[in-house]
User: Fold this.
Amino acid sequence: MILQFILIVAFGGALLSYVLGKISSKVRNFFAVFISLALVVMIACLYGKAIEKTFYLGFLDLPLLLRLNTLSWFFAITIAVIGFLSIVFSLSYMKGKEKLSFYYLMMLLVNTAMLGIVLSGDLLSFYIFWEIMSWSAFLLISYNRGPALAAGMKYIIMSLIGSVAMLIGLLSLHASYGTLIISEIVPLIASASSGYILFILILFFIAFGIKNAVWPFHTWLPPAHSEAPSPFSAILSGILVRMGMYGFILFLFVIVGSKIFLELGRDSFHYILAWIGAINIVIPTFIAMLQNDSKRLLAWHGVGQGGYMILGVALGTSLGVAGGTFHIINHTSYIALLFLVVGAVEYRTGGVRDLNSLGGLIKRMPLTFIGALIGACGLIGLPLTNGFVSKWLIYKTLILKGHPFLAFAALIGTWGTILSLYKFLHNIFLGQLPEKYKNIEKVPFSMQFPIIILSFVILLFGVLPGIPLKVINAIGISFGLESLNVNLWGIVSETGTLNTINIFAAILVAGIIVWRLFRLGPKARPVPQEDSYAAGAYIPKEKYHYTVEFYNPLYRIITPYLKDFVDTFYLKLSQATGRLANKLRRIYTGDVSYYVAGIILFLAVLIFIQICFKLW
Amino acid sequence: MVNPVLLIVVPLGLAFAIPLFGFISKRIEKYIPLTAMLFNLIVSLLLIPKALQQPIVVSIGGFPPPFCINLVAGPVGILFSAIIALVGLLVSVYALDYIKQGATGEYHILYLLLLVGATGVVLTGDIFNLFVFFEILCISSYALVAHSGDKAGIESAVKYLIQGAIGSSLILIAIALLYGLFGTLNMADIARNIDSVSSISVFVPLVLFITGLGVEAAIFPLNAWLPDAHSSAPSSISAILSGIAIEVGIYAVARVIFTIFGAQSILLFLLLLGILTLLIGEMCAFSQRNIKRLLAYSSIGQIGLILFALGIATHSGVVGGLFQIISHALSKALLFLAVGYMIYRTGSLEISTLEGMGRKMPLTSLAFTIGAFSLVGLPPFVGFPSKFLIVRAALIAQEPLFVVLIALVLLGTIIEGAYFLRIVQVLYFKGEKSNSKIEDAPIVALIPIFILMLLILIIGIYPKLLTGVLNSAAGEFLNRVGYIKSVLG
Assistant:
């Protein structure tokens, strides 16, 4: 009942907020925040419960089920929290824009659909919610007009391709086993041939891979993320894309099971998956470095970080799965934070995302800067942030399983992340403040609030990773993986122990020492931000922004290797389809005698075939 | 007890009475089709429970079936006549305001005749009557395509007439051949004896039927009339042509193949033809800039999908095909009705002129969006369960060939998604933000649009509503012996 109630509240709330929007925008905003907060509270209360219940029988004699377990709770709470924070952020960010009722309706609808996906107990409702999520996300991506339209089309076409693959896989399962209920499929698929499992997995993985933006299906993501309204980018990159990860985990560890999965394709399938993960880390991270659009830069990291998750999950050990799963929620927290930071900057600068024309905003938007710094540290994986812990788990797995090359790829990825995020931080917040941004003010509290919360979460999970790891460990146990020895500040194992409290203490001590040392020196003299010199010469205003083309020499070396040939290929393919369609259209010439000849010819050919070949 | 004959007699009588009513008052004329279709809808709905148990066979003239003209109102017939009446009713409500200029009296007569023809085709149990009703349907649609009276309308009507006439003559030849062979025109009687004759002499009428009916059913390569006719007709007529007329054509094809000839061997060919029709239709729609042509090509694609589903010829396949017929009838009617007033307001058929409609005509745009989503097969709209059933029917056979074929079919869906969703973007997100004033379609037009939207949503969420009827309808198509028995006793 309670799960049904949650979905009804979520869905009804979405519709009601649209209706309220026609009456008063204030009421609508308040209501949208209220609904999204109510969802967070309700889902939080469900922690540790296991429910499975049929909720609908009206669809073609297939029962639709809702189900709650640790895995779905873990995703559901993430969805609800990110949804809530994004909606709070939207309050000021979206103020004064058009079609706001529509915007809130779609935001809440996307949230409902995602909750539906993770709470589905059968594959049909999974698919239905998946599709609703896809089209509502399409409408939101297109919201910004202009280039957003092309981004939306790219997204929805790839998404449709994924859905089609999923539909075939789904119905093939139904044709074989006569059921789509996950808990009923699990025992049945255990006895299936490995070829059939592989066939099903590949079909579903096309869908999940496209949604999760796995290379080579990633091309929709950068434009979609950068063109969507920023609060939605946070949802999109933070959690919507990770529905693909949920699908991967669901299929690999719940439906197929880790034992069969690791043996698939003569033990090679998981290895291939791991390599796809590694490719996913390296290429997109370096492409991210080349970007000059702040949201596009983050978007490419969204692709890159997905690689870590796949890498962790694909290895199939309890440590790896824990690392991959933990990385999902960590990524959600810091990428959402960074998108909101960019949104805040956009809000104050009038929609500027070009990294080369920003700069020096640190004094103007200090809190936003701190948020960006913490988010960047998390994304890089510096100690004391949650990104460190999940990456530590993934590295540990790679080393324990003896995959030096994969570990190296992961390491290179981190290097690229550092370089690109340094550029991100520096070009927005450090360096010279352009004259036109001189009078910029702090963002309103409704935009600061999500930034504060997310920063806090990143640090909290970084210092006390045991909180989420306890849940993740329970998930692993439910998959039949061996239990990890988790405590509040890390993980104990015979091959190496992670203790974040020690790290925290060490950094604290080091910090105090550095601070004391600074106090020993002469007192610093604060100068105005505009009073800047380079090589002893005064920098004229608006003339020189030395962060432009930050990594030029490096670019020259790596650019030739980073051509997004997959994207080019898709573009060519779609153009070719368009041309073919245009040519095909010409068969309808408009000449009626030609049409009549066609009819007669059709008849004649059929009779001719029958006389000669006796086909029918 | 209500008699299925009323479904034909009452609207036919009313159609010819329209000029008489015109003497009383010109304003009554337009309410006649509405009344007739309301009557038909009620009668059809009343007949459904009875028809589901046992086909209602009505003999006219007092002779037992093989020797008389008879109506067979089985589940298929009643299902179709209900859809025809429903869509006909909604479109006639729409036309109350939409049809204002030109020969309005004639419009209403022809409109009602078209629907009578369609109802007759699906109810008759006699092959010559099938031809007659088919001709009523076709001839009235030729005239209606030209209703606007402009050059494009007349040109495409003439083209349609030429191709339709060829199709009709092929059907007539086929009927003559069958009559020569069996000496009867009763469908069940022919079906009973069809196996007693050598294969080639049966094959020729079969192919003649497929070709002749295929013209009206818009099967590739016989469908060249459709894009012109559907796009130059008034939108209310386009809705009927796309939503009803070609579906009736497909019904006739299915009836001839399944019931009369029981031709199992040609089904695979039709299935492949269906895929070809689907892909060509969708590809052509993909590169269209004219909104009504786009919808017309999309109808071709949908017909291909229906043909594919019927061609699978398993129970679930036929159920899927019939469901797709319903979902297409509802969605495409909705699309044409929505587009009708958009065109009326902008005066142009170009898709690019629809920019900003989301603000100017919010309800109409919403209707278009729902129709488009439904045709693409997105849940929770009616197109989803129907597409779902078709895919399931194809995969349940567990043959690798069908996996490939269904992949091709779904490729069509992707193309369909691409062009429909692009238009949705144009409606809502393209062009400059403007605060132009709202001038939505009049309330009379919005009522049928709203009802169609509601139906699409309700059936999409609760498809069980239809599964009972569809199951017995599929049973009627696939169970030849049962059909013959119920007619001839």
Notes: The radius of gyration of chain A is 26 Å. Residues 167 and 497 of chain A are 44 Å apart (CA to CA). Residues 587-616 of chain A form one domain. Chain A touches chain B through 59 residues (CB under 8 Å).
